[in-house]
Amino acid sequence: MNKTDIINNLINQGMICFNPFTMSVNSHRYNFPLDHTHCYEIQENDITELMTNLIITAETDCPFEIFSRYQNNAFLDIYALDTFAEVSWELSFPTIQHLKIIKKELGLETLYYYDNKLQIAKEL
Hints:
The structure is a single chain. By secondary structure, the protein is of the alpha+beta class. The protein has a domain of 85 residues. It has four helices and seven strands, in the order αβββααββαββ. Strands 1, 2, 3, 4, 5, 6 and 7 form a seven-stranded antiparallel β-sheet that branches. A hairpin with a 2-residue loop joins β4 and β5. The longest helix is centred in the middle third of the chain and has 14 residues. The radius of gyration is 14 Å and the shape is globular. The termini are far apart.
């Protein structure tokens, strides 16, 4: 998918999860959010401008070093509603084993993730 297709999907569906490095919209089964959801007002800012800024930020000044290191597993999850957009920076992996590696790498006692297949949040 290209940037225009992703923006059109967001506008039409109100949400999109995509990789800002590859423009893939195919995330894996297990998603690990790197931080709390960030809210952006889109009443004053165009959604195209917001998405462009997020892509540039991911490529040049990413707030999460691990996001840049795992570029093939890095996803931005955007949910747009009325006058705001919620953005989550996430890593997405096909297996729990990958999450165990991230948990150890980050030195976390507990790692919370979302299982896309079961559609529930879990802890590891």
